[in-house]
């Protein structure tokens, strides 16, 4: 697409036509995030650590599939990879629906839950990464920050939409089919299925000229300084996604889905209000401030002893985490040539996947010893480490290193 087309007012609609597939994917993630830990612990009778692992295994699967996702995108085209991801998302929902009707066999049901979560991890990797590259190539490299920001709006806006819907379905007993955990799984499958014909209608971008592709680990080495800072911020999101619902349940508070929705809402509003600051202030500076705000939100969660304070902490954490990915992602993508943007996004996102994937089970092991407050304190400390990494990146950029 020409630079003239990039400047047309309709470019936002061009981006939205594709980023809607990220929205479908993350509504599914929000649906499952709100009820999977409760189902594993309360319905199946497993520990909090296993409940946290059931959430985090999705991100471990995302990490495992991200390595190949970038190359598939660069060689086969992003549209094809999006369709693969949506199809796998349908499978994920069907596996969870099956788990919901097998509660009398807890271990078998757990295996279906874990299989469904792994399938969703693959779906997230393929859809989210491919949508970003698809839109960068449709809108132009100059729109990278805008593309990443819209992707994030749909990501965490989807979580904000999905979480309360899942809670209503999970606790419902009146609907003939769409109720309980099985109902959440069926809705997940339907949403991803709706995306398949819509994706097929969108034009594929022409393939880039073939050239020598750097290895994944070469690309990872180039983006790693930015990825480490991203990982530091992602631990806080991992703590909230895996532990917030259990925290509310442990304290006998209602409204965990509302807190997750607040996290997503402030995330989206912050993206809309402050994305332009990345170009004005520089990505490293914006990421540093964002990580500091995230740390404050996690500390409010750690030391606030009411549902109201937990809501405030979740909202502040969402606002802080909002700009971390696009602020650092612009610098990460700039390290790689245009022929390997998919690999760059994939390698950069791997750092997020690892951080979220390991944070759930590791932080879950802290709960029997020190309680939920310690989980959010630890995550806050890691976010502050990320602030220090951003300061180092900013100095390196200033010195031209």
TrEMBL record:
Q: Where is the Major facilitator superfamily (MFS) profile domain?
A: 14-398
Major localisation: membrane
Gene3D superfamilies of this UniProt entry? Answer: MFS general substrate transporter like domains
Pfam family name, one: MFS_1
Cellular component terms, GO, for this chain's entry?
plasma membrane
Top-rank taxon: Bacteria
Q: Where are the transmembrane segments?
A: 12-40, 46-69, 81-102, 108-136, 148-171, 177-199, 219-247, 253-274, 286-308, 314-336, 343-363, 369-393
Q: Which keywords accompany this UniProt record?
A: Cell inner membrane, Cell membrane, Membrane, Transmembrane, Transmembrane helix, Transport
Where does the record say this protein resides?
Answer: Cell inner membrane; Cell membrane
Question: What is the topology of this protein in the membrane according to its UniProt annotation?
Answer: Multi-pass membrane protein
Output the InterPro entries linked to this UniProt entry: MFS, MFS_dom, MFS_trans_sf, MFS_Transporters, MFS_YhhS-like
The question of whether NADP is a record keyword is answered with no
Any one GO MF annotation of this record: transmembrane transporter activity
Family, according to the entry, reads as follows: Belongs to the major facilitator superfamily. YhhS family.
Q: Provide the protein name.
A: Uncharacterized MFS-type transporter AOR01nite_10060
What organism does the UniProt record list as the source? Acetobacter orleanensis
């Amino acid at each position: 697409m020409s630079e003239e087309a990039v400047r047309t007012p309709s470019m936002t609609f061009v981006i939205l036509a594709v980023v809607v597939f990220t929205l479908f994917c993350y509504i599914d993630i929000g649906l499952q995030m709100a009820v999977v830990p409760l189902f594993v612990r309360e319905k199946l009778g497993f520990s909090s650590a296993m409940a946290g692992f059931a959430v985090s295994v999705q991100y471990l699967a995302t990490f495992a599939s991200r390595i190949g996702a970038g190359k598939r995108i660069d060689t086969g085209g992003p549209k094809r990879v999006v369709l693969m991801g949506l199809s796998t998302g349908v499978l994920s929902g069907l596996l969870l629906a099956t788990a919901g009707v097998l509660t009398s066999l807890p271990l078998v049901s757990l295996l279906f839950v874990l299989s469904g979560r792994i399938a969703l991890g693959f779906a997230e990797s393929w859809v989210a990464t491919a949508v970003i590259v698809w839109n960068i190539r449709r809108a132009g490299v100059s729109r990278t920050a805008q593309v990443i920001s819209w992707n994030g709006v749909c990501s965490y806006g989807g979580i904000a939409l999905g979480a309360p819907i899942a809670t209503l379905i999970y606790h419902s007993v009146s609907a003939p089919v769409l109720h309980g955990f099985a109902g959440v799984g069926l809705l997940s499958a339907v949403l991803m299925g709706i995306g398949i014909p819509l994706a097929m209608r969108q034009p594929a971008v022409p393939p880039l000229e073939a050239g020598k592709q750097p290895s994944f680990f070469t690309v990872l080495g180039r983006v790693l300084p930015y990825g480490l800072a991203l990982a530091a911020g992602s631990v806080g999101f991992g703590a909230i996604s895996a532990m917030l619902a259990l925290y509310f349940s442990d304290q006998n508070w209602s409204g965990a889905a509302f807190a997750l929705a607040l996290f997503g809402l402030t995330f989206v509003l912050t993206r809309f209000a402050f994305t332009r600051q990345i170009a004005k202030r520089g990505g490293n500076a914006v990421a540093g401030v964002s990580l500091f705000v995230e740390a404050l939100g996690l500390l409010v969660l750690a030391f606030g002893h009411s549902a109201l304070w937990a809501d405030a902490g979740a909202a502040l954490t969402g606002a802080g985490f909002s700009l971390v990915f696009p602020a650092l992602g612009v610098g990460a993508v700039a390290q790689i040539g245009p022929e390997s943007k998919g690999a760059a996004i994939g390698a950069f996102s791997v750092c997020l996947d690892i951080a979220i994937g390991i944070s759930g089970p590791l932080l879950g092991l802290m709960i029997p010893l020190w309680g939920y407050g310690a989980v959010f304190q630890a995550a806050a400390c890691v976010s502050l480490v990320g602030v220090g990494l951003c300061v180092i990146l900013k100095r390196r950029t200033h010195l031209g290193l």
